[in-house]
């Protein structure tokens, strides 16, 4: 007689690892994101699921919209949260406002411009770039010259260049874009809530951010907003955007017209958490949040210099308060420093990204993590790593 097991149609046994409980260590997330999530936001994400098209969900989505309008300082109706990380918002902005063959101008002074240039290239845009090494920034004269030369339909700028630790000036760029009949797209994934940004006043046509930085929600949702000019361009296209999922015609039905029509299943728990993170920012007040990030960053910068280290961005006014970049100290292997801090202090800091790899160590103190107490913790870990890691030359 055949045994029960030999009659089974399942050839592949349950994996050993899946029979063990989930283990997640506690880490001090002092890199460029994600940052630690406060208990209130974690609890919001752990609420029971409801349907993504239930009335109560639409009320929560409305709260999120209002919360984003406050955080972005905009009255735009076309304000929503993407189901996906910051890259989703990046792709959504480009896919919807640009048609194949149209000219796009991308400023590159770190990894994020590189990404946007690639995204635009992949969807068939004619991509022009302005390039500076990490830490560099673009003057309004340089931007105006490039706008006049390339006549783009879209100009991209990263407000908080997290790979270099630079907060790019935004004033006057919106006016230039308006004059050159070009949409102004700004990435604020690493800067929102940490460094002043005023979407309507600064004439930003499209602005997006991520959930996992100063907002302190888990990764996976991304606020985005389009003004009237951007809506006019994206809703008067000749051909449909390349992505069905990110097509703003559908997303605006879901989020803005709130038609109870199925497009995709939104990340319900992620939206609960995002709602709560925006509520915390609203309770604290944007200006208080900007002030707190600046004060703690200045405290951290001084502590770093007191350790004999050099800050990568020399001009204080250009430093991103949420992500500080330290020039790699002479003689040290940056990977060893990071590994030491992780092993002995459970502190995460990271190296550079894209063109800044090998140039910097990045320390992020964002939102919930943004305190002098945590700055001291980061400095203690750094000092200990400098003391114990081998110094090879210099
Ligand atoms: N832009 C900036 C400035 C970022 O810092 C990041 C994330 N590090 C992104 C875009 C991409 O966001 P995500 O990883 O959520 O896709």
TrEMBL record:
Substrate binds at residue 362. One of its GO terms (biological process) is glycine biosynthetic process, by transamination of glyoxylate. InterPro entries: Aminotrans_V_dom (IPR000192), Aminotrans_V_PyrdxlP_BS (IPR020578), PyrdxlP-dep_Trfase (IPR015424), PyrdxlP-dep_Trfase_major (IPR015421), PyrdxlP-dep_Trfase_small (IPR015422), SP_NH2Trfase/AEP_transaminase (IPR024169). The keyword Transferase applies. Residues 28-370 form the Aminotransferase class V domain. The modification N6-(pyridoxal phosphate)lysine is found at residue 213. CDD domains: AGAT_like. Its EC number is 2.6.1.44, 2.6.1.51. The keyword Iron-sulfur does not apply. It catalyses: L-serine + pyruvate = 3-hydroxypyruvate + L-alanine; glyoxylate + L-alanine = glycine + pyruvate. This is Alanine--glyoxylate aminotransferase. The lineage of its organism: Eukaryota, Metazoa, Chordata, Craniata, Vertebrata.
């Amino acid at each position: 007689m055949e045994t029960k097991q030999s009659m089974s149609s399942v050839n592949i046994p349950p994996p050993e690892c899946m029979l063990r409980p989930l283990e997640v260590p506690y880490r001090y997330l002092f890199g460029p994101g994600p940052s630690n999530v406060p208990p209130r936001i974690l609890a919001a994400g752990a609420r029971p699921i409801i349907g993504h098209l239930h009335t109560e969900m639409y009320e929560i989505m409305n709260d999120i919209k209002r919360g984003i309008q406050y955080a972005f300082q905009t009255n735009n109706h076309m304000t929503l949260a993407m189901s996906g990380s910051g890259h989703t918002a990046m792709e959504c902005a480009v896919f919807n406002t640009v048609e194949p063959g149209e000219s796009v101008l991308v400023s590159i002074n770190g990894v994020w411009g590189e990404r946007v240039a690639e995204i635009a290239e992949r969807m068939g845009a004619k991509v022009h770039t302005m390039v500076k090494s990490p830490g560099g920034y673009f003057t309004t004269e340089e931007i105006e010259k490039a706008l006049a030369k390339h006549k783009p339909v879209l100009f991209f700028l990263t407000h908080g260049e997290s790979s270099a630790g630079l907060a790019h000036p935004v004033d006057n760029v919106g006016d230039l874009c308006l004059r050159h009949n070009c949409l102004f797209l700004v990435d604020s994934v690493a800067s929102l809530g940490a460094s002043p940004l005023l979407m309507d006043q600064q004439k930003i046509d499209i602005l997006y951010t991520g959930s996992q930085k100063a907002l302190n929600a888990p990764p996976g949702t991304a606020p985005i907003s389009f003004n009237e000019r951007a809506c006019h361009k994206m809703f008067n296209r000749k051909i449909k955007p390349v992505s069905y999922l990110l097509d703003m015609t559908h997303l605006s039905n879901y989020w803005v017209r709130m038609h109870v029509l199925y497009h995709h299943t939104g990340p319900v728990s992620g939206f609960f958490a995002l709602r709560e993170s925006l509520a915390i920012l609203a309770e604290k007040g944007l200006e208080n949040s900007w002030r707190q990030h600046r004060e703690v960053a200045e405290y951290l910068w001084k502590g770093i210099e007191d350790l004999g280290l050099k800050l990568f961005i020399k001009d204080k006014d250009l430093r991103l308060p949420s992500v500080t970049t330290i020039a790699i100290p002479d003689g040290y292997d940056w990977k060893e420093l990071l590994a030491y801090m992780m092993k002995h202090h459970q502190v995460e800091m990271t190296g550079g990204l894209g063109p800044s790899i090998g140039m910097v160590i990045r320390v992020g103190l964002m939102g919930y993590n943004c305190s002098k107490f945590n700055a001291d913790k980061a400095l203690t870990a750094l000092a200990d790593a400098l003391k114990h890691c081998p110094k090879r030359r210099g």
